[in-house]
Amino acid sequence: LKGLQRLDEGDRLILSLRFFQGLGLLEVADLVGLKDAQTSDRRIRGALQKLREELGVPKPIAVKPKSVSV
């Protein structure tokens, strides 16, 4: 929780609503005044990145799934 406390109030709020309260992207967007779920998703990802940096955790590497030939 210490890393979360170092974030600004807006980032703490959006992460709390999404992950502690379990709200969906549209619900979070409505509550914090964002225009849509896509904007909410971008804001959440940005806040998560700031939290990772505060905690010294590297960003996860995206792994591309192998395509299966049929």
Structure description:
The protein has about 70 residues and is an all-alpha fold. It has helices spanning about 1-5, 10-20, 25-30, 35-55. Helix 2 crosses helix 4 (about 35-55) and helix 3 (about 25-30) packs across helix 4. The radius of gyration is 15 Å and the shape is flat. The model has no long low-confidence stretch (mean pLDDT about 90).
Structural class, by secondary structure, is mainly alpha
Largest sheet: none
Tally of DSSP helical segments: 4
Binned strand content: under 5%
How does the overall form come out from the CA principal axes?
A: flat
**Percent of residues in helical segments?**
55-70%
Low-confidence stretches: none
Order of helices and strands: HHHH
Descriptive key words:
70 residues, flat, mainly alpha, 4 helices, single chain
Topology:
Elements: H1 2-5, H2 9-20, H3 25-32, H4 37-55
Question: What's the short story on this structure?
Answer:
This protein has 70 residues and is mainly alpha-helical. 61% of the residues lie in helices and 0% in strands.
